[in-house]
UniProtKB/TrEMBL annotation:
Residues 328-522 form the VWFA domain. SUPFAM superfamilies: vWA-like. This is Substrate-binding domain-containing protein. PROSITE patterns: VWFA (PS50234). Pfam families: VWA_2 (PF13519). Keywords: Membrane, Transmembrane, Transmembrane helix. The chain crosses the membrane at residues 21-42.
Length: 528
């Protein structure tokens, strides 16, 4: 039997068999290539990408780097992002029409977004894309048990009110106030002290406070950024726990750009939420949205307090604004005969004097207050300039301005009489406030009255409103804040007067309400 030789057709026979196996594979490859080609076409030419869209993202300087990383990660040939460095403090002006409105805003805190939304009267949809627990950081932060202890520390420093995360102390205070056994009044007092009396750092807050031997309340991310330049810095969280400072991505676009911006927001938020995005956040000293992925060198795992109540945060913002910006106000007190009428256990004038005394004794030395009284029984003009406006710490003769005001106000108890020359006095007081306007202060007038104008022969309500409207100067904002004492006060009139200057109009029927209304009037600051 001879050797067997492979057939001349052997090789083709093998190819034919393997070809039957390869056709399905080639088919899958072709489908993948075709689908991939269609996908690439849809994303590179014609169709949905015939006109690529670019979206602007405003971000505070501290967030620009991470914003740029995630924008680069999220961008494709249909959508691109331009990051603009915009301080959080500039956003209200931009959104109110004071410049080009960005499509998106990477804000330093959710609390800041809520405040800005209220200020500009807009709903600002947001998605939390990062977070950072609030800590006490600086030279020697100690081991506080509660935030009350931390906020009451003698070495605590304040950050400027327009700095990123300036609201961090407020956020933790409001959060702790909602826990069992907390002392809300003491927390409020600690915040007021921080705003009024604590030394304010300049520049990078953690390092600046440490150089002065103190501490500040900031997010962990700010502490970690400062620690890169000063490894000796330290940070702690009080034993009671803390709050995550939420960093939201906000849709701020308007008009026909809203729909596209909403889509772009989802794309960019997705980049932050990706595994790669989480790595970028850790590298930037931030955490993911739920705060679980702690960055190296930080405070580690933290106990979380309940989220602070939004309405209490807003109330706290108003309080801090009230005590942080110096006030310059002329208090105009009705001393007409009806102010001698009884109101509970005191008189109407007594109620007003008590409220004035309490407020003036507690507000900052830097606030500037003056006092007028008015009644038709006054000779000549119906008003009497008792104490010119000056800072409360200023000297007036042998006493301070504060003491002079309290003495003058108490002297009005026995000087009531005559009718209510309301309208003429208010117009004169407004003109006086304009002459003495000081841009370093929040300028206002506080009018306390229990009646209806009884001097219509000289100025009517319509003439007063017209007169105010004619002289209002946007460059010199001055509010008229009114308090109607008792049910006899003409609330319709004083509401119209206050509304003309963006002021408040309140009514007091008791000494307690008088005090609350006076505090509200003092707290109503003009926007400069």
């Amino acid at each position: 039997m001879g050797r067997h030789h492979p057939s001349a057709y052997g090789a083709p026979a093998v190819w034919n068999r393997s070809r039957r196996l390869w056709w399905p594979v080639l088919g899958v490859v072709l489908v993948v290539l075709l689908v991939g080609g269609v996908w690439r076409i849809l994303h590179t030419s014609g169709g949905a990408c015939a006109s690529p869209s670019e979206y602007t993202v405003a971000a505070d300087q501290s967030l620009v780097d991470v914003a740029e990383r995630e924008a680069a990660r999220a961008a494709d040939s249909c959508t691109s992002f331009t990051i603009q460095t915009v301080p959080d403090s500039a956003m209200p002006g931009l959104l109110a029409g004071g410049g080009a409105i960005p499509d998106l805003w990477l804000a330093s805190s959710k609390a800041r977004v809520d405040t800005v939304g209220t200020e500009v009267g807009r709903d600002l949809p947001a998605t939390t894309v990062a977070s950072s627990p609030i800590v006490v950081a600086g030279a020697k932060p100690g081991t506080p048990t509660t935030w009350l202890e931390a906020l009451s520390a003698s070495d605590l420093h304040a950050v400027p009110v327009d700095a990123p995360n300036a609201d961090a102390p407020l956020i933790v205070a409001v959060a702790e106030s909602g826990t069992s056994g907390s002392d809300q009044q003491a927390l409020t007092a600690a915040l007021v002290h921080l705003a009024q009396s604590a030394p304010t750092v300049q520049g990078e807050p953690v390092s600046a406070a440490a150089r002065a031997g103190g501490v500040v309340v900031v997010p962990e991310s700010q502490y970690l950024a400062a620690k890169k330049g000063d490894p000796a810095l330290a940070a702690v969280v009080p034993q009671v726990g803390t709050v995550l400072n939420q960093i939201p991505l906000v849709v701020t676009a308007s008009g026909d750009r809203v729909t596209g911006a909403e889509t772009a927001e989802k794309l960019l938020a997705g980049a932050f939420a990706s595994r790669e995005g989480a790595g970028d956040l850790k590298a930037a000293g931030l955490r993911d949205a739920d705060g679980t992925a702690a960055p190296d060198g930080g405070v580690g795992t933290v106990v979380l307090l309940p989220e602070p109540d939004k309405s209490k945060l807003a109330e706290g913002e108003r309080l801090l604004a009230a005590v942080a910006v110096p006030l310059k106000t002329l208090v105009v007190m009705d001393t007409s005969g009806s102010m001698a009428e009884q109101s509970g256990s005191t008189t109407r004038i007594g109620m007003a004097v008590a409220g004035f005394d309490r407020v003036v004794s507690q507000i900052s030395d830097a606030d500037a207050i003056g006092l007028w009284s008015f009644s038709s029984s006054t000779r000549g003009a119906p008003w009497n300039a008792l104490v010119p406006v000056a800072p409360l710490a200023a000297k007036r003769g042998s006493v301070t301005q504060r003491t002079a005001l309290v003495d003058a106000m108490n002297g009005l108890r026995d000087r009531v009489g005559g009718g209510t020359a309301l309208y003429t006095t208010i117009l004169a007081a407004y003109k006086q406030a304009q002459r003495e306007f000081d841009p370093a202060y929040s300028n206002s007038i506080i009018v306390l009255t229990d009646g209806t104008d009884e001097d219509a022969d000289t100025t009517t309500l319509a003439q007063l409103i017209a007169g105010l409207t004619a002289i209002i100067d946007p460059a010199k904002p001055i509010t008229i804040n009114t308090v109607g004492i008792s049910g006899d006060a003409d609330m319709n009139a004083i509401e119209a007067i206050s509304a003309a200057t963006d002021g408040t109009a309140l009514r007091a029927d008791s000494e307690q309400q008088m005090l609350a209304d006076f505090v509200t009037a003092v707290a109503n600051r003009t926007r400069k």
